[in-house]
């Protein structure tokens, strides 16, 4: 029996709804396998901030470092600035644990009619640089309240930072359809982007020496946004800087149906620190507390976590269970259905028992 210790930070808004939903699904699926997860909940987030003035305790990172993985819901609340909430919890976890890869799959799901025309199945993974770039800590607000007021941000791209994320993306592309797209903006006056292009090309040359099928396309991000809408099936792995990858991943998930379905894995190969699994969406204050949030992003993130913990069959089983619910027409409102979170989870739990044996038979 494998066991793993998971830090749970449900956080704010719909994080409080989709997290328990996903934990029930993950527990139900692991019961079929030789694995048990030991969940340890942390009540960190905006309520904790209201009580203590901080989003997590001073030794919060140290506490998280003792776990095998972190399962996070969402952070952010309308009455506290994001510069307090996100900058005090989510961003420090990604940074301190050097989770430099933010892996964000997006693909066609059964029974869903994409908002846009989709002639062919969509199956892409966005590999977002997650530690540096436009999200650097260098910058600030100056001369507040005066005529001279200004905000300045220095985007920091390092050879090490670009190389490691490009290598991860190229290696991933080799295991898929061999097509890597790099999001760039080297035509604008953005000094960092010609450097990004150069380093990515160098890494891809190295990887392609052993895998000649690997191809690289540099696509300007404005044109890439349009191409994602018009021909989303054309993309396999997309590597992008922190900010560009953030924007492209909401776009990619919306193209497949809703940002409520998108999962993500914040990884730090070679795994010196815990990785973090969380939906791409935020705390959705506009629907929080109504029981209507789509739990797929959180459940699918749970599947990415199982895969990461060395349980690919349990992960595939869980994905098959929520896909079957969709195929049966059980959908939350963001997908045009009428189901609430609870109804969707009930369908997933029933499918975990019914799709399990089929999946085992296929794999034998
Ligand atoms: P959001 O992702 O929370 O919501 C955008 C829209 O998508 C809303 O209309 C919402 O109702 C809908 N939506 C999102 N998830 C859904 C789900 N699971 N089911 C159904 N509908 C869903 O983005 P926002 O409104 O821009 O941000 C709200 C707060 O969340 C802000 O404070 C923001 O900074 C924060 N945020 C946090 C994270 C995170 O914790 N990882 C990610 C993004 C945004
Ligand atoms: C995401 C979010 C975060 C980001 C915000 C909330 C800081 O949008 O995970 O995509 O920009 O990384
Ligand atoms: Mn985002």
TrEMBL record:
<keyword id="KW-0456">Lyase</keyword>
<dbReference type="GO" id="GO:0046872">
    <property type="term" value="F:metal ion binding"/>
</dbReference>
<dbReference type="Pfam" id="PF00180">
    <property type="entry name" value="Iso_dh"/>
</dbReference>
<keyword id="KW-0464">Manganese</keyword>
<dbReference type="InterPro" id="IPR050501">
    <property type="entry name" value="ICDH/IPMDH"/>
</dbReference>
<keyword id="KW-0520">NAD</keyword>
<dbReference type="GO" id="GO:0050319">
    <property type="term" value="F:tartrate decarboxylase activity"/>
</dbReference>
<dbReference type="GO" id="GO:0009027">
    <property type="term" value="F:tartrate dehydrogenase activity"/>
</dbReference>
<dbReference type="InterPro" id="IPR011829">
    <property type="entry name" value="TTC_DH"/>
</dbReference>
<keyword id="KW-0479">Metal-binding</keyword>
<comment type="similarity">
    <text>Belongs to the isocitrate and isopropylmalate dehydrogenases family.</text>
</comment>
<feature type="domain" description="Isopropylmalate dehydrogenase-like">
    <location>
        <begin position="5"/>
        <end position="348"/>
    </location>
</feature>
<dbReference type="GO" id="GO:0046553">
    <property type="term" value="F:D-malate dehydrogenase (decarboxylating) (NAD+) activity"/>
</dbReference>
<dbReference type="InterPro" id="IPR024084">
    <property type="entry name" value="IsoPropMal-DH-like_dom"/>
</dbReference>
<keyword id="KW-0560">Oxidoreductase</keyword>
<protein>
    <submittedName>
        <fullName>Tartrate dehydrogenase/decarboxylase/D-malate dehydrogenase</fullName>
        <ecNumber>1.1.1.83</ecNumber>
        <ecNumber>1.1.1.93</ecNumber>
        <ecNumber>4.1.1.73</ecNumber>
    </submittedName>
</protein>
<dbReference type="GO" id="GO:0051287">
    <property type="term" value="F:NAD binding"/>
</dbReference>
């Amino acid at each position: 029996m494998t066991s793993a210790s998971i830090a749970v930070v449900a956080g704010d808004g719909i994080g409080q709804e989709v997290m328990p939903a996903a934990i029930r699904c993950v527990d139900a699926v692991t019961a079929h396998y030789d694995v048990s997860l030991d969940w340890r909940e942390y009540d960190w987030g905006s309520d904790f901030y209201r009580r203590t003035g901080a989003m997590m305790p001073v030794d919060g990172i140290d506490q998280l470092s003792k776990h095998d993985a972190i399962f996070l819901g969402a952070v952010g609340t309308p009455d506290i600035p994001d510069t307090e909430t996100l900058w005090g919890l989510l961003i420090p976890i990604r940074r301190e644990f050097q989770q430099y890869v933010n892996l964000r799959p997006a693909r066609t799901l059964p029974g869903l009619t994409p908002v846009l025309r989709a002639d062919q199945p969509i199956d892409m993974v966005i590999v977002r640089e997650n530690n540096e770039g436009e999200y650097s800590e260098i910058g600030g607000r100056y001369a507040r309240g005066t005529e001279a007021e200004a905000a300045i941000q220095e985007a920091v791209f390092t050879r090490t930072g670009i190389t490691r994320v490009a290598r991860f993306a190229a290696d991933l592309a080799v295991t898929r359809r061999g097509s890597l797209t790099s999001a760039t903006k080297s035509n604008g006056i953005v000094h960092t982007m010609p450097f990004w292009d150069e380093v990515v090309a160098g890494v891809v040359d190295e990887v392609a020496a052993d895998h000649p099928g690997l191809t690289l396309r540099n696509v300007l991000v404005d044109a890439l946004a349009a191409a994602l809408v018009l021909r989303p099936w054309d993309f396999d792995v997309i590597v992008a800087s922190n900010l560009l990858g953030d924007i492209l991943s909401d776009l990619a998930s919306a193209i497949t149906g809703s940002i409520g379905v998108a999962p993500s894995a914040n990884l730090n190969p070679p795994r010196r620190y815990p990785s973090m699994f969380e939906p791409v969406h935020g705390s959705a204050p506009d629907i929080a507390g109504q029981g209507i949030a789509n739990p797929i992003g959180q459940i699918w993130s749970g599947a990415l976590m199982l895969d990461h913990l060395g349980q690919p069959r349990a992960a595939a089983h869980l994905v098959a269970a929520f896909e079957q619910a969709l195929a049966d027409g059980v959908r939350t409102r963001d997908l045009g259905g009428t189901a609430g979170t609870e109804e969707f989870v009930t369908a997933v739990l029933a499918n975990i028992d019914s799709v399990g044996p089929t999946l085992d038979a296929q794999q034998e």
